[in-house]
Prior knowledge:
InterPro entries: Acetyltransf_17, Acetyltransferase_Eis, Acyl_CoA_acyltransferase, Eis_dom, GNAT_dom, NAcTrfase_Eis, SCP2_sterol-bd_dom_sf
Protein name: UPF0256 protein
Structural class: alpha+beta
Number of helices: 11
Largest sheet: 7 strands, mixed
Subunit structure: Homohexamer; trimer of dimers.
Bound molecules: acetyl coenzyme *A
CATH topology of the largest domain: Aminopeptidase
Pfam families: Acetyltransf_17, Acetyltransf_9, SCP2_2
Number of strands: 19
Keywords: Acyltransferase, Transferase
Strand order of the largest sheet: 1-2-3-4-5-14-6
Amino acid sequence: MNLPIRPISEAEWPAFCDVLDEAFATTFHPVQIDRFKALTPLERTLAAFDGDLPVGVTAIFDFDMTIPGGTLLPVAGVTAVGVLASHRRRGILNGLMRRQLRDIKEHGESVAVLYASEAGIYGRFGYGRAADNVFYRIPKHGSAFVANAPADPALRLRTAVPAAAREEFVQVFDAVLRTRPGLYTRSPERWDSLLADEEFDRRGDGRLRCVLAEDDGGVRGYALFKIKRGFTDHDVPEGEVRLIELFAVDPAAYALLWRSVLDRDLCASVYAWNRPIDDPIQHLIAEPRHLNAGTLDELWARLVDLPAALTARAYAAPAELVIEVADEVCPWNEGRWRLSTGKGTCERTDDAPDLTLPVQYLGAAYFGGRPLLPYAAAGLVTEHRAGALRELSAAMAWEPRPWAGLVF
Ligand SMILES: CC(=O)SCCNC(=O)CCNC(=O)[C@H](O)C(C)(C)COP(=O)(O)OP(=O)(O)OC[C@H]1O[C@@H](n2cnc3c(N)ncnc32)[C@H](O)[C@@H]1OP(=O)(O)O
């Protein structure tokens, strides 16, 4: 791939979007394009040009993401990756990814993250599957809670127009932001995008709705959802609540909000498609088989500056070991690193390694949600000292499990 790669100019924005429109086989509404533009720093875009024409593109959103220990770390949110069908499988993605990772390093972020359209694409570029999500379809008839589910008589529900309740959403979200690795800061433009509710975007699910849980002291949680209306041939209601997000600052508010969406009149089920893997609802439903749960990969993570990333996070258990890292895409990460969680250091060393592994497994474990022993069982990690992988895996594990919660 010998095509030049550079950030796009303002004038090239429409052509940049045309590549995405074509690559994702979608038809963007002009309003969606404007919303996306408001989120995208042009100087952090990249395009590969065939003559004057962008044929492969990508961009970065800047945000801070919670890492184990509750620190907010600046990360590069990689997005909008697309290559024209006419130019596919000629190495354009490869060129874009390598250039982008060098740019991220220069920009000073130690970690890059993304949501993948297909799970097979990004491992080769050093991204590891860092978080999984759960999806449920919970029938109302199977949604009874366990007898000891929390309840607080001081709580009440309030229906509101989402746009009018925005400040309350922000208040709740900011209160939970640092409690789970993977959650990331939301700019006003990202809230605009989440709360956008244009007719063309509804896909038969009706308008955006919300319910808030509050007491005399203020808001304690919210659920954002749509409702797909429906009736059987015999006029039995079978509408479905499509849960977009639900956050609460305490368990009683969380339980009440779930009850509110599960008990919705004229609805027979709740479909929730992006929930954390350790979502507490799994323990509130008395018959958990009725969750009809499935899992998918969620966040992918890549260590761009390995020592900076590994010293930024907290660890759940002590680890003192030499990790030999293979990283052909970011060669500055290659070699042996002595990680000392006790001293809070990660330094280059010539000492004999305890482990040898590819960088993507460190990315997978970085947010605390990926045990490392299965990689050894799969023959993908080499342990030179017995017990070293268990030591690293225990140190990197974290609860609650990571989840970014909002596709970017
Ligand atoms: C974060 C995001 O935005 S995710 C969105 C990703 N974009 C899409 O899914 C849109 C549709 N797809 C596309 O635009 C393109 O097919 C892309 C971007 C996925 C790939 O672009 P290409 O320029 O064809 O990839 P390129 O030729 O550089 O391939 C690099 C490597 O990735 C592999 N690869 C490419 N696409 C895929 C895929 N979909 N699944 C698995 N492997 C893939 C290639 O085989 C090649 O492997 P190799 O290095 O072992 O030979």
